[in-house]
Amino acid sequence: MYRFLLSRQWVILTLVAVLLIPTMIRLGFWQMHRYEERTARNDLVARALDAAPVPAQSLTAPGKKITTRERYRTVTAEGHFDTDREVVVRRRTDSDDNIGYHVLTPFVLNDGKVLLVNRGWIPSDGPSQTAFPEVPAPPRGEITVTGRLMPDETTEASGIKDLEGLPDRQIMLINSEQQAERLDAPVLGGYVVLIEPEPKGDTPERIGRPGNEDAALNFAYAVQWWLFAAAVPVGWWFLVRREKRDREAAEDGEPARPEPAAV
After folding, report:
1. Where in the chain does DSSP place strands (E)?
2. Could you tell me if residue 162 is inside a domain?
3. Each residue's pLDDT tens digit, 114-149
4. Count of structural domains, the chain
5. Fewest C-beta in 10 Å: which of 57, 140, 176, 213?
């Protein structure tokens, strides 16, 4: 009664089931790997955000690359803002996905080095994308700033194209090497997202803390794929049993063949 498994239809169905099982198992392990990666990143970010503030120059220097462990560390620096050489970063969004700019202001340290400070988001000024927007001024004079340390932005990491021929004082990426050339000054590697002092009138709009990645979703997907893998042979056997019963029922209900006529 199981000879039907050798039919073309059932051979194809069985081969598909055999291929699906390892594929789903591998997808489950891939999702579990993503879960472990995201969990590790969440732990790393949480530790960086909870760490005590340290002087910026203890973690970065001109030409230095900011590592994954240094990213989001809270740093402090003493000096003054140089608004005359301030620029804006194009095509940046706020928490509601409105398009505008990030304000990037050089912060000149007491030893003459420069720390790039992202002071936050401002909206675009109407349809014009060429004029330098109105930017609220930061505090004047010698102050202490506190911010989250971030690595230089690159096209490879961000997907943002570094366009040429932009309007004056507008850039696409925050990159300390590029800004060192523009400012003709020693610029500390990376940049900081400003935390304190808070802006007057809530503008520029401060950039919020990074949130946790949804690692639990990857864990759920992994379990889901493995359940699918387990369900494939169960479903295949269910179909086989049903086919067998249908064939048996068809044979049992088949009318008797008539006796041959006597000569």
Report:
1. 54-55, 74-81, 87-93, 99-109, 114-123, 143-150, 170-171, 191-196
2. yes
3. 999 999 999 987 656 677 888 999 999 999 999 999
4. 2
5. 140
Read out DSSP for 28-76?
A: HHHHHHHHHHHHHHHHHHHHHHHSPPEEGGGT--BTPPPPTTTTT-EEE
- Scored b (16 or more CB within 10 A) or e, 84-93 reads ebbbbbbebe
**pLDDT (tens digit, 9 = 90+) per residue, 206-228?**
998 887 778 889 999 999 999 99
| Verdict on whether the full-model pTM lies above 0.90 | no
Separation between Cα atoms, residue 68 and residue 47, nearest integer Å: 12
CA dihedral sign, ordered 140, 133, 116, 76: positive
Please indicate, yes or no, if residue 161 is contained in any of the structural domains: yes
Total H helices, total E strands in the chain: 4, 8
Strand duo 170-171 + 87-93: pairing:
parallel
| Phi, psi (rounded to 5 degrees) for 54 | -130, 160
Q: Cis ω on the peptide bond leading into residue 22 (within 30° of 0)? A: no
Q: CA torsion, points 184, 185, 186, 188, in degrees to nearest 10?
A: -100
Q: Examine the domain organization and report whether 151 and 197 are in the same domain.
A: yes
Residues 183, 176 contacting (CB under 8 angstroms): no
Q: What is the extent of the structural domain holding 15?
A: 3-43+215-249
Paired with 196 in beta bridges are: 146
Do residues 117 and 192 share a domain? yes
Q: Could you tell me whether strands 99-109 and 74-81 are parallel, antiparallel, or unpaired per DSSP bridges?
A: antiparallel
111/180 same-domain check? yes
